[in-house]
Design a protein that fits this description.
Rossmann fold; 6 strands; 7 helices; alpha/beta; single chain; six-stranded mixed β-sheet
Length: about 190
């Protein structure tokens, strides 16, 4: 089984879209590690809700790696991010896991840093996803994350209100988009 490592920004759907597209090609993902900055932690909690109550029904493990900064603001943050990614890759490879990298989410520097580490670690499976109909941050998610505290919804361990759950699942598994999975060569 494979583990997907993904930077994460304001569009949590890039994670689930890549999983769904990979699995459509027969590549099973059973674990996901995301790297959100502190400023966009709501995206992680939206994914936790989706992984628990959406189509995956807790069959996939999702975890986040807490980054030591609110946002990537300088060269030191980039270097620290690359160090963190390399450490996680080393840990997952020691566990015998097949590491797949997604460069679809996060700050613009994050995919570049992921590519640098993938190339250095000789990881050949790097993907990006493009939705032809929508580009950039989901305005709906930007609005709703200001109203609802997704972390509190996850941590309270009660049923998620149906309208919030439906919104998250529909956002993370869009049916009205033409998605294209792009494998990026690292060598």
């Amino acid at each position: 089984m494979s583990v997907l490592l993904s930077s994460l920004g304001w569009t949590p759907a890039v994670v689930t879209e890549i999983i769904d597209l990979l699995e459509g090609k027969g590549i099973k993902i059973d674990e996901v590690v995301v790297f959100p900055t502190k400023d966009i932690i709501a995206s992680y909690y939206a994914l936790v809700i989706d992984f628990k109550y959406g189509p995956y029904q807790e069959k996939k493990k999702i975890e986040k790696y807490d980054l030591p900064f609110h946002d990537i603001e300088n060269e030191q943050d980039c270097e620290k991010f690359r160090e963190i990614i390399e450490n996680v890759i080393n840990e997952k490879e020691k566990e015998g896991r097949n590491v797949i990298i997604s460069v679809a989410g996060g700050r613009k520097t994050m995919p570049l840093d992921l590519m640098l580490v993938a190339s250095r670690k000789n990881i050949k499976v790097v993907y990006h996803v493009i939705a032809k109909e929508k580009k950039g941050i989901s305005n709906e998610f930007a609005s709703i994350q200001k109203i609802f505290n997704f972390k509190a919804l996850v941590e309270r361990n009660k049923a998620i209100p149906k309208e919030i759950l439906n919104f998250i699942v529909d956002m993370c598994h869009p049916k009205d988009l033409t998605l294209k999975l792009i494998q990026i060569p690292t060598k």
